[in-house]
Design goal:
disordered N terminus; eight-stranded mixed sheet; disordered C terminus; B30.2/SPRY_sf; alpha+beta; phosphoprotein; about 10% strand; seven-stranded antiparallel sheet
Length: about 1300
């Protein structure tokens, strides 16, 4: 007779038993007595005592099902009525009411328990309410923004401005503002942070309402709640845009249950009891072993248990899992029973023992449960682990996080489970990136940081060039002791965090394993597909909060990924000596154009991918042996996106067209091309991978490969790694690239994804985290100011002393808190190891750009983010990791600076780069680079050819390109050499606090004489370089200063109106920008005149005289506008409007003075004479403006000494800290020279009739006649006009030539002809 258990169906085997004891040896079933003892040991009831053991009923596999039914029987009469519990109304399964109980726009998860705000202030309530008794529910805080969580009645009406707590009969707790709300608001509770759990408790027997944060009661929030007929309270929340939470009404075990309070949703008590009993039976199986030889049971440790194929054990487990499997699909039971059991295993034993038990458990799950059952179980298991890890409180040893990560590792070490989770759960169902995040504690007391770091200390403000601005030797003995104690505490914290980080890296190493391809695809290739999709969601879904991974998670994920990647990279190098170390890593350029890797819609350096494939298809064919299928090009056009089907002729022709150039037979059409799910639009949007339509044989160098796009999900391992006939990701190797691959192709794609991750959000988050350090600096400065005031305050002013002492205490407590938070941030984000990761990523980008540059025109295929990551990672290393770590300490620092300098110098004007944003980024990066001595010296170290090319690009005419940044670069190369141009901050701003003293514009002058020399050589070498450059500078100066004058006129008029109209802050900013541009353009002119004076003073050069006259004209205009008594400029400067701080007399007047001194004092005698005559000949020249520079109201009489300056007036003599004695002497010499020359010119000048004046400017006499039309003007006007136009002023005829004209010669010619 077959047992009842024999009819059960198992995943792998069915075991049939016989009652014949004589066949025990053949079947493997032990004898009856031992079997009875074994089954009673496994399936014993808690009430069975040793005294009753003798009278117990014998057990075998025939009566075991009946025994199990009795064992698992639960008194569940009340189970049917659980949904109608007294005091509660609504469905027994409590979820969010997404059909009618909401206001505003909200995004609700599929389980109806998670919600994300998608409008100003949306509100939603649950489907169940309570009117009697004590109830609670939990809210898992996913973001720490503005939210109000609590209870409301059904009569409450909310809108986009008023939410829970803003109306009568609604009550809320707001941990963002640390307040409670019920129409009015008062302080309450503590601040919450992402990862906290808020418990909302309501006692309708006493009419009170309270809240808890992470299990710690915040006290009673509200009393005397309205109760009675019609009063029932719903759980509810109001949350602002992009804020997110998850509710637990009881569908999962409460993390912080409270005695006397019930969850809104009752737990499955009967199933829970059954599951716990079955778990006990299962644990008994693992701890008991049969010894058929001795006929006894042997107690063993569960970590030593092995499944040896004994039918008795197998059938016993089959009976257990027959009843256990359905229960393990329920989320509550998985978290309450299975996770607790596995966590106990991990906590009790060593990692090896825990791994052994977990592996055995998972093997049994896959063996005895149906696939859909074990898959549901694993899904719920990982989701529970993720929630437990994410919402566990921070404790000093991070013990909770460590245990959950170890359990996750143990599960993922199981190959079959890992592949299922990777394929279906980790990236699809849940945000597995959370496993790589270590949340930062908002409340350092609860995290135990006071015990870890008992002594606090805060660093001084650091400079951008390295360590603290003051030497460590300057600190006192007390400060040194505090600093060392603080550093020891930071080291203790760092060691504990490193334990968690190492476990996170182990998880990624498991996911990147490519040796587990037995019977399926290796984990690494599944990971690559999911990782690329993850990147695509975050790249194309910017602003779409449900899709985006939070940037703080991205930062941690990137560092763990780099660690795992470098581990496998160097492991491959160890077994393949011809490969490269990870220190030499880069992305080969062919990956960017062969289409094997999907870059979604991210911009390339040369523009859109479809455009590049059309314009550079010949280069792809000649340099990379790649042909883009014409149908692929056609599919990429915007017109074809609207077509539902391909034209019939094209479809018919495709098999014939898909030919390898060296082959003879048409290639078979891949099956994926016929897929109805892969339409043309999909191929356009996903230009990811290229399916090689190549014959399965090696390609000769002359053969060209025709390619088509293939979505990332359809790639195989061969598409990535390649084979003996296929280079995989490295298809289309240009001749400049080595034949030997760097490493496994799959690791190259992981590296490419890591670079993209940094571009998407990591850099932005690194900048945000610096805010903690900035807060420390601000509070430290406030504390020092308060202590100084305490020392200066008279002892008799006890009231002031009390206030100052109170402020001192507040600042000290705040600094203690912030310094401990800063220690956490430094350990998790800005540690030395994290700095080395970013430095490695920077060097990867530099090598990638260098290799891509060698491919010529194909460089345009490189995604823009490689250049932006190179720029931004350098900025992060320089600005974010100080003062604890300095970039100067990194290996190869000088070489890296030089390589980055070479890239910036070459590509800021590279015509292959067309994107406006990336070109601006390159220009700004170069402008910032030349502001710091270390990086400027790096620019000087690049090859001379590249330096000269850079300077040549800087000297190109300013028209038709962004010239302001170019001009800024030239100014920085000159700053420190010009007249009075050695200042860091303007004199009138010294008493004000700069917004950020580390800004590039506030760095000390560091001129480059080497680059100045290159500039001089270039301006001398060609006849057209200097005139075109100076003409463009003068044009921009004329525009910038004119705009500035026009704007300050409007500002002055607005300030004088009686109605007190406020000037737009944007207008003030534009006005100040125009002024700064005018000053910088004047400084560039000063540099040009100083380095190459002959281009203005040597009139044998073309356009020299005209340029000198234009320069004199502009200088006189600037002087007259700025130096006039009580003029417009004076009045606006006196107003000191916010936004116009930089507008002052000093910067613009010293720039003009520097040009005049160079022309009139330093030049040769002939040049000085020409400059003087041109300056005096300009009708706008006023000697009074020159006298203004030295504080003189009027020009001195000839032969008299200069009077003493009036200290109330502007005078260069007042700025002795900025202008040297020699420079002042040169100004006095210039003034004396101009005074004498102007007197002589006035005595020698003859009156000019109006008829003889130029009809254009009415300032100079007519001196030129145009041919062939014969119209006349002065030489200055016509020469300036001919720089930009060849048409006559008057008749628009084309001017062929310009001849000198003198009135006397013309009159004599007229008389002789009449005779």
């Amino acid at each position: 007779m077959a047992s009842k258990g024999s009819s059960m169906s198992f995943s792998h085997k069915s075991y049939r038993l016989t009652s014949d004891a004589e066949k025990s040896r053949v079947t493997g079933i032990v004898h009856e007595k031992l079997l009875n003892d074994y089954l009673h040991r496994i399936f014993s009831s808690p009430e069975h005592t040793p005294a009753a053991a003798a009278s117990r009923k014998p057990l075998n596999f025939q009566n075991l099902p009946e025994h199990l039914d009795q064992l698992l029987h639960v008194e569940d009469e009340d189970e049917e009525s659980q949904g109608q519990a007294e005091g509660r109304l609504g469905p027994s399964t409590v979820v969010l009411d997404h059909t009618g109980g909401f206001e505003g726009l909200l995004l609700v998860d599929d389980d109806l328990l998670g919600v994300i705000g998608h409008s100003n202030f949306g509100t939603i309530r649950s489907t169940t309410c309570v009117y009697k008794g004590k109830w609670l529910y939990e809210v898992l805080i996913s973001s720490q923004g503005l939210m109000q969580i609590g209870w409301c009645t059904i009569s409450c009406r909310f809108n986009q401005e008023e939410g829970v707590g803003d109306t009568h009969n609604s009550y809320a707790y707001d941990g963002n503002r640390v307040r409670k709300w019920n129409v009015t608001t008062t302080n309450y509770g503590k601040a919450w942070a992402a990862g906290d759990i808020v418990s909302c408790l309501i006692d309708l027997d006493d009419g009170t309402l309270s809240f808890s944060l992470n299990g710690v009661s915040l006290g009673t929030a509200f009393e005397n709640l309205s109760r009675g007929l019609g009063m029932a309270y719903f759980p509810a929340i109001s949350l602002s845009f992009k804020e997110s939470v998850a509710f637990n009404f009881g569908s999962r075990p409460l993390r912080y249950p409270v005695a006397g309070y019930r969850p809104l949703q009752d737990p499955p008590r009967a199933d829970l009891v059954r599951a716990q009993k079955l778990l006990g039976c299962f644990r008994a199986v693992l701890s008991v072993e049969l010894d058929p030889v001795e006929g006894r049971l042997v107690e063993k440790d569960s970590s030593e248990w092995q499944l040896q194929g004994q039918p008795t054990v197998l059938l016993t487990l089959a009976h257990i899992f027959h009843r256990f499997a359905p229960l393990l699909r329920k989320v509550y039971l998985v978290e309450a029973v299975l996770v607790s059991f596995l966590r106990g295993v991990v906590e009790a034993g060593t990692p090896t023992q825990a791994q052994s038990v977990v592996r055995q458990v998972l093997d049994l799950l896959w063996l005895f449960m149906e696939d859909y059952e074990v898959q549901d179980c694993l899904k719920q298991l990982m989701m529970s682990l993720l929630r437990l890890y994410r919402f566990s409180p921070i404790v000093p040893d991070l013990g909770l996080q460590t245990h959950y990560l170890r359990l996750t590792i143990a599960i993922l070490r199981h190959e079959k489970s890992r592949k299922f989770l990777l394929s279906n759960v980790l990236f699809d169902v849940l945000r597995s990136v959370v496993f790589f995040y270590i949340k930062s504690p908002l409340r350092v007391e609860e995290a135990g940081l006071q015990e870890l770091i008992p002594t606090t200390w805060w660093p001084r403000r650091s400079s951008r060039e390295g360590k603290d601005s003051k030497d460590v030797k300057d600190e006192t003995a007390e400060e040194r002791v505090r600093r060392r104690a603080y550093e020891r505490g930071c080291q203790r914290l760092k060691k504990r965090i490193e334990v968690v980080e190492e476990l996170q890296v182990q998880i990624l190493k498991l996911l990147l394993n490519n040796k587990d391809d037995n019977g399926g695809e290796a984990s690494r290739y599944i990971f690559l597909t999911k990782f690329r999709k993850f990147l695509q969601e975050n790249a194309s879904g910017r602003g779409n909060m449900p899709v985006l991974c939070p940037p703080e998670y991205m930062v941690c994920f990137l560092h763990r990924l780099i660690s795992a990647l470098r581990y496998y990279w160097d492991e491959y190098k160890a077994s393949n000596p011809r490969a490269s170390f990870s220190e030499e890593a880069y992305i080969p350029p062919q990956i960017f154009y062969n289409g094997k890797v999907d870059y979604f819609d991210l911009q390339r350096l040369g523009g859109l991918l479809s455009h590049l494939r059309k314009t550079l298809k010949d280069d792809l064919a000649s340099k990379a042996n790649i042909l883009i299928d014409p149908l692929e090009l056609q599919a990429a056009t915007m017109d074809d996106l609207d077509e539902d089907e391909e034209p019939a002729p094209a479809a018919a022709q495709r098999p014939t067209q898909a030919l390898a150039m060296g082959g003879v037979l048409p290639l078979p059409r891949p099956s994926w091309l016929s897929s109805p799910t892969l339409g043309r639009a999909n191929r356009f949007l996903s230009t990811a991978a290229v399916s090689l339509m190549t014959p399965r044989r090696p390609l000769s160098t002359s053969e060209k490969v025709k390619v088509r796009t293939l979505s990332a999900e359809q790639r195989t391992r061969e598409d990535i790694e390649g084979s003996h006939w296929n280079e995989g990701l490295l298809l289309g190797r240009p001749p400049e690239e080595p034949e030997q691959p760097l490493t496994e192709n799959s690791l190259l794609e992981v590296l490419d994804g890591a670079v993209m991750m940094y571009s998407l959000s990591v850099h932005q988050q690194l900048g945000k985290m610096v805010g903690v350090s900035d807060d420390v600096n601000e509070y430290a400065m406030a504390l020092r100011d308060t202590e100084d005031k305490l020392r200066r305050c008279p002892k008799r002013r006890k009231d002031i002393l009390a206030e100052l002492t109170k402020s001192q205490k507040v600042f000290s407590e705040k600094l203690d808190h912030l310094s401990r938070r800063l220690a956490w941030v430094h350990a998790t984000v800005y540690s030395q190891e994290k700095m080395l990761d970013l430095y490695w990523l920077l060097r990867v980008c530099l090598r990638t750009i260098e290799h891509g540059d060698r491919t010529g025109s194909l460089f345009a295929f490189m995604p823009e983010f490689y250049v932006s990551v190179a720029i931004n990672s350098y900025s992060a290393l320089k600005n974010y990791f100080g003062p604890v770590h300095s970039m100067e300490e990194l290996p190869g620092y000088e070489e890296t600076l030089t390589r980055l300098a070479a890239i910036l110098a070459k590509h800021f004007a590279d015509t292959r780069i067309v994107g406006t944003d990336i070109r601006d980024s390159l220009m700004q990066a170069l402008a910032s680079y030349v502001c710091y001595p270390h990086s400027l010296r790096a620019v000087e170290r690049i090859p001379e050819e590249q330096r000269v090319a850079m300077v040549r690009s800087l000297l190109a005419p300013y028209e038709q390109r962004p010239w302001a940044q170019t001009n800024w670069i030239l100014v920085r190369l000159w700053r420190g050499c010009g007249f009075g141009y050695r200042y860091t901050r303007l004199p009138h701003l010294l008493k004000t606090k700069p917004e950020d003293a580390n800004l590039p514009s506030l760095q000390k002058p560091c001129p480059s004489t080497l680059l100045q020399q290159h500039m001089a050589e270039l301006l001398r070498e060609g006849p057209d370089v200097a005139p075109s450059f100076l003409n463009s500078v003068l044009n921009q100066l004329n525009w910038a200063f004119s705009e500035f004058i026009g704007m300050i006129q409007e500002i002055q008029q607005a300030a004088e109106r009686l109605e007190r109209n406020f000037v737009d802050s944007r207008q003030l900013k534009v006005c100040a920008t125009c002024f700064d541009l005018s000053v910088s353009l004047l400084r560039v002119l000063e540099m040009t005149v100083t380095l190459v004076p002959e281009i203005l003073l040597d009139w044998t050069r073309p356009a020299s005289e005209m340029l000198l006259r234009r320069l004199a004209q502009l200088l006189n205009q600037v002087l007259n506008r700025v130096t006039a008594e009580r003029n417009l400029f004076d009045r606006v400067v006196t107003l000191r409007l916010p936004g116009l701080e930089s507008v002052d007399h000093y910067p613009i007047l010293v720039a003009v003075t520097g040009i005049l001194v160079r022309l009139l004092v330093h030049g040769p005698a002939s040049g000085t004479e020409r400059a003087t005559s041109v300056l005096l000949a300009d009708p706008c020249f006023q000697l009074r403006s020159i006298c203004y520079l030295l504080g003189q109201p009027e020009p001195p009489a000839p032969g008299t000494a200069l009077p003493a300056p009036d200290r109330k007036r502007f005078s260069l003599q007042s700025y002795t800290d900025y202008i040297s004695t020699e420079e002042l002497a040169q100004v006095e010499q210039m003034l004396a020279h101009l005074t004498s020359a102007s007197a002589q010119a006035a005595a020698a000048s003859l009156p000019t009739s109006e008829e003889d004046l130029c009809p254009i400017c009415y300032a100079h006499p007519i001196s030129a006649v145009f041919q062939p039309c014969g119209h006349k003007s002065c030489k200055a006007c016509i020469n300036q006009h001919l720089m930009n136009n060849k048409d006559c002023f008057f008749c628009k005829a084309t001017i062929v030539s310009v001849e000198d004209w003198e009135k006397a010669a013309s009159a004599s010619t007229t008389t002789s002809s009449a005779a």
